[in-house]
Amino acid sequence: MNVRTDPALRLPGSSSPVVLLDGVSRYYGGSASPVPALAEVTTSITYGELVAITGPSGSGKSTLLNLIGTLDRPSSGRIIVDGHDLAALDDRRLSALRAHRMGFVFQHFHLAEGTTALDNVADGLLYTGLPRRERRARAGDALHTVGLGHRLRHRPHQLSGGERQRVAIARAVVGDPVLLLADEPTGALDSNSGGAIVDLLHRLNDNGTTVVVITHDVQLAARLPRCLSLRDGRLIADSAYPTAAEASR
């Protein structure tokens, strides 16, 4: 398929996409009885978009995130991220792409409990080669960006759930990634804290970060400009291209 002409692979007036999925499938269980987790998904996400990917448990959301985030490889189809054809990259180059061009946010924070917020965020730059002083300076800036400039020296057990998720987001964006992938970022939070995280994701997007949010929360998804819906591993709806998604069912 040609990204310039196929409507499922581009948005009106867009430049080249940051994420391109062309007929992507992922099967598990071996060749004898493969189980499809994702089936023939074709779509794209443009630089600067804020997108929700929704669907019930088992719909393929996490599989799709793992594929976009280079944590897994497709059984078939083509994936291009930030101009890189993932099939052409070895594990070392995939790791470099993740480290320098992507940020990840997960439901359960994954913070080091005995470490301050500042150093939890600075650790997100460990593989950049920056000296410790520079890593900590950038971490401080990132924590100020997410509204935690007054919590630099606090450890995770001294923070609320919403604050811990803000630390996790600061760690994900401290390296200025082009793409932020958030997997159920409000799933462990109450509604007020979750709403504040959604507001933060909007602000990060306003500053130029492409944000993709995996969620089963329809209210969260409704607050984002674009929504892709999965069911049984298939893309069944796309608010940007509803007819294209329906045609692929």
TrEMBL record:
<dbReference type="InterPro" id="IPR027417">
    <property type="entry name" value="P-loop_NTPase"/>
</dbReference>
<protein>
    <submittedName>
        <fullName>Peptide ABC transporter ATP-binding protein</fullName>
    </submittedName>
</protein>
<dbReference type="GO" id="GO:0022857">
    <property type="term" value="F:transmembrane transporter activity"/>
</dbReference>
<keyword id="KW-0813">Transport</keyword>
<dbReference type="InterPro" id="IPR017911">
    <property type="entry name" value="MacB-like_ATP-bd"/>
</dbReference>
<dbReference type="InterPro" id="IPR003593">
    <property type="entry name" value="AAA+_ATPase"/>
</dbReference>
<keyword id="KW-0067">ATP-binding</keyword>
<keyword id="KW-0547">Nucleotide-binding</keyword>
<dbReference type="GO" id="GO:0016887">
    <property type="term" value="F:ATP hydrolysis activity"/>
</dbReference>
<dbReference type="InterPro" id="IPR003439">
    <property type="entry name" value="ABC_transporter-like_ATP-bd"/>
</dbReference>
<dbReference type="GO" id="GO:0005886">
    <property type="term" value="C:plasma membrane"/>
</dbReference>
<dbReference type="GO" id="GO:0005524">
    <property type="term" value="F:ATP binding"/>
</dbReference>
<dbReference type="InterPro" id="IPR017871">
    <property type="entry name" value="ABC_transporter-like_CS"/>
</dbReference>
<dbReference type="GO" id="GO:0098796">
    <property type="term" value="C:membrane protein complex"/>
</dbReference>
<dbReference type="InterPro" id="IPR015854">
    <property type="entry name" value="ABC_transpr_LolD-like"/>
</dbReference>
<dbReference type="Pfam" id="PF00005">
    <property type="entry name" value="ABC_tran"/>
</dbReference>
<feature type="domain" description="ABC transporter">
    <location>
        <begin position="19"/>
        <end position="247"/>
    </location>
</feature>
